User: What shape does this take?
Amino acid sequence: MAAVVAAVEAGVVTVASGRGCSTRLVRGLYWRLRAVLRRLRSERARRGRRFSFHYDALSYALNFDDGRAAAADVVLAPSDALR
Assistant: This one.
């Protein structure tokens, strides 16, 4: 199909006008074909954008946690059981 589109754009394809056909027929076919291809391309692009995933804040914060939290950084509340 791309070859037909390229040929019509370049003006290579012409139809003999002896039978009432003309380049108008080819151009009409070109524009219909072009519209279909654009529609397919846009549907495919929309389908790809439909699913997107974004991190929530906690998951994003875990990306920067290397697991080496210092004991001084951890604050424990006193427990009644330890008294």
